[in-house]
Amino acid sequence: MPQQSPLDVPEGDPFGPHNLPYGVFSTAAEGRRRIGVRIGGHVLDAGAAAAALGSPYAGLLGQASLNPLLAAGRTAWRDVRRALTAWVTDPGHRPTVEPHLLPLDEVTLHLPYEVADYVDFYASEHHATNVGKMFRPDGDALTPNWKHLPIGYHGRSGTIVVSGTDVVRPSGQRKAPADPAPVFGPSVKLDIEAEVGFVVGAPSELGTPVPLGAFEDHVFGLFLLNDWSARDIQAWEYVPLGPFLGKSFATSVSAWVTPLEALDAARVAPPARDFPLLPYLDDAALDRPGGFDLRITVSINGQEVAQPPFATMYWTAAQQLAHMTVNGASLRTGDVFGSGTVSGPEVGQRGSLLELTWNGRDAIELTDGKRTFLEDGDTVTLTAWAPGPDGTRVGLGEVTGRIVGSR
Asked: Could you tell me the CA-to-CA distances from 279 to 153, 212, 301, 323, 381 in Å, in that order?
């Protein structure tokens, strides 16, 4: 019997030809970084395959970062994706393509793009309501502006790290309500935030807002994101300006970026809005819905603790992009923006330990003990999939990180 080709991906594999996410990898034998495309359990050296096939896209794909491809714009993204699909599905290309496939477990994955700016949002009504109930029990759970604009803040792009990078427990000032004065030390309320990130490709001009309808002209794709959070540091510092040291020590992102085009079948309408939106945020007349039906799973030390549904997010990525540029702020290639914590209406759908334990009141039972917040040695993993064409699934890979002690 002839040996099966790595291109013969089993039916139902979430990383089949309908997906083809992009990443950057290296090998032990050859340390240089290269653009890779995942197909099943293998990585295609996209640049080498393009060169072997005499493709006009060899220059874009033969890079050490996705940034040149990101900057090339939507027409190039579409054309390169069509070429890649043909390379992995046309039997006539197999003799040329197969030598450039490497098993996933033989490569090292890297941060696939050079991050420019980083913005994080707060777009889940369920998450925001839970937080409001915890910290404003005698007032309204949502602030008056929440349903009129996507709330966000500027993060620290230099601490975005690829999946698999250890997370050092941060130190800072913290003060419990009963403490007479603040103390300095390692965070004792280290948390996660299960999110979806988006990476900008085509830039925009300073002073020119990006409208809702131009979202797909500027955003290349999406990925899983874990915005690690030191809740005790954050609680003491965030009044009146917002998150700072409690958020800026590490943000983990998946090594794979899924092109928006691979998620056409996962498009869904966002939840009904309770108030009329200002024109620049009003997406009622768009050609297709701006939400994405992404099914996220959160695991701690290999044990599943939550399944946050991205389809419940009140604000869409297109609205977030429109809002963060409406004042004339420009986009740069490699800009990253996060959705904010993804949480659903059920307890088992909450995307943070803050919510799952109700700020430490209710411990989570794990096989290796109880948790309210993360302990040194804990490993958190986010995985996700989305509905694909013809009943398939589109895998979004994973983002993982292990907590190590403070320094």
From this structure: 22, 10, 45, 11, 39
Percent of the chain with pLDDT over 90: 96
Q: Is 184 exposed, middle or buried (0-12, 13-18, 19+ CB in 10 A)?
A: exposed
How far apart (Å, rounded) are the C-alpha atoms in residues 389 and 293? 13
Are residues 97 and 104 in contact, defined by beta-carbon separation less than 8 angstroms? no
Identify the residue whose tokens are 């990130």.
Answer: 197
Whole-structure pTM value: 0.97
Would you place residue 1 in the very low, low, confident or very high pLDDT band (cuts 50, 70, 90)?
very low
Written as one letter, the residue type at 201 is G
How many residues are listed for the chain in this entry? 407
157 φ/ψ angles, rounded to the nearest 5 degrees: -65, -30
Instruction: Render 267-331 in DSSP notation, one character per residue.
Output: EEPPPPPSSPPPGGG--TTSSS--EE--EEEEEETTEEEE--BGGG-SS-HHHHHHHHHTTSPPP
Helix, strand, or coil (residue 87): helix
Q: What share of the chain is helix, strand, coil (3-state, %, to 5)?
A: 25, 30, 45
Cα(199)–Cα(254) distance, integer angstroms: 12
Q: Name which residue leads in pLDDT, 397 or 1.
A: 397
Alpha carbon distance 234, 243 (integer Å): 6
- In the sheet where 393-404 sits, what is the strand order? 167-168, 393-404, 379-387, 295-300, 303-306
Note the pLDDT of residue 241.
87
CA distances to 39, 86, 340 from 89, in Å:
11, 5, 37
Q: How many CB atoms lie within 10 A of CB 307?
A: 18
Q: Catalogue the active-site residues.
A: 127
